[in-house]
């Protein structure tokens, strides 16, 4: 958090210096037993939600922890064919993509200046952005709600997107500045000698070269937005603009008697995050570890 | 002549790097002499402007306003006029409900460290050995961390209801005597919360520790093994001390996260049950007594208290624990 130095692009292989022979060993059985138990504990609640969605309410009432006697896909079909789920996914996608785009664009521009321009007040500017790390959204949530209200952005996704961009900027800038600074000066010199303007250099060289850092930052912003709860809770009061987390909660209270359907809805809403995680696992884990490795 | 302008001297470069909070020791950056001229200023303004406006407008301004509103009794209509000085703060600190919430935060801070720390260290030590399917294990342990708090909260509260899956499973196993009202029994609810928190966030700790372990040179444990040290001796006397910086940073993140805990509690216990079940936190108190009660001035004062407590804890931690790892990082003055 406060000690980010270089954005790691991916985890290094477990033991780069270990001889190949050692990698072929299976290791101690204890480790496997522990690993299996832990994974079982980690996945059990997730599986409960997914499998629960295949049961009927009668089954859940009579035997809450049982296996589905008949795998009933009706709950899932209901959710998938109803409009609510897709509207929520759409809203979450819009909020997530807009936040990511905004964070990456604004963060990259500001980081470029902080990394490669020299001017008075640069240190102050950097410190201002870095200070943002000290303020969690919880602290500012009430005035933030008033700012959004005064801008007329209540019940619109824009009212969620703009604050999310703002609160993601500190991390983004702290990750991107060292990244941009590490781009060799020779490239910059060569571009200028060839008559490239500094803004042209930004678009043609910096943006492509900073891609790995940009992707890490973008993924972090997207996941944060996708899972965000407190801000949408304050800003969005109309279910037409609900994002997925709000939608899951309102669905759960609205259909509280229909447990099976709630479980189906919840497990479907978890899928996008899981797929996204599976696709970008290396970058997410790498970004997190890179951020903390002093 | 533009070519001449584009190749600055090294001297300018070193001057330009002064006073920067960044600490990465990279080669001095080449900068053009024009940096103080009008053109560069326009570029700087165009590039930094949007980010700065959004940041000041949606982060700094609301934070400052929170401090300001905290001195008023104000229901959110029109500008605040009823200045009450420190009365909101006195009320907060004397309110038993707030004191309970603060106590819960303290318990959560300590239990998070005590429960997640050892478990995560053991798991990381085990997983750091040569294992088949290591990367798959790593991904699966991390799954709860990626799932949103709302999904986690909804799923767990369904499982933990008195007629939910956990009690059902206990009865099926013949352990019916152990069934509990996991969510609303005041002695148990906080432990239920801790189990959920541990489940959700331990993967994050494991991933951090694994990264830290992989930074330890192979040669040290190998040399110790040649000298006859056992696996656990090696972990105790070589690996753990070398992992200490990672542990300290994880503990810092965990403490701050526990102080600001909101989502899980609010989703599972709602705003009202949380205080009777003994799981309310400062942040749920803030939302319940601020916006939901319509007392915006009071809510902002709570936010300020929450922030100051986090800040003091962060500074103390920084002063006494993190000092050797990241000198001055939290106070913003990079030592460079």
UniProtKB/TrEMBL annotation, chain A:
Family annotation (SUPFAM superfamilies): MetI-like
Transmembrane portions of the chain: 30-54, 93-115, 124-148, 160-180, 201-223, 260-280
Primary subcellular site in the record, as a coarse category: membrane
Membrane topology reported for the UniProt record: Multi-pass membrane protein
InterPro entries documented for this protein: MetI-like, MetI-like_sf
Signal peptide: none
Entry protein name: Carbohydrate ABC transporter permease
Organism of derivation: Cryobacterium adonitolivorans
UniProtKB/TrEMBL annotation, chain B:
GO biological process, alphabetically ordered: transmembrane transport
PROSITE patterns: ABC_TM1 (PS50928)
Keyword field: Cell membrane, Membrane, Transmembrane, Transmembrane helix, Transport
Gene3D superfamilies per UniProt: MetI-like
Major place of residence: membrane
InterPro entries the UniProt entry points to: MetI-like, MetI-like_sf, UgpAE/MalFG_permease
Membrane topology listed for this record: Multi-pass membrane protein
Superkingdom of the source species: Bacteria
Domain ABC transmembrane type-1: from-to ranges: 102-317
Cellular component GO terms held in the UniProt record: plasma membrane
Location(s) in or outside the cell: Cell membrane
Membrane spanning stretches: 42-71, 106-127, 139-159, 188-211, 249-269, 296-317
Region annotated Disordered, chain positions: 1-30
Family that this chain belongs to: Belongs to the binding-protein-dependent transport system permease family.
Protein name stated in the entry: Sugar ABC transporter permease
Organism listed in the record: Cryobacterium adonitolivorans
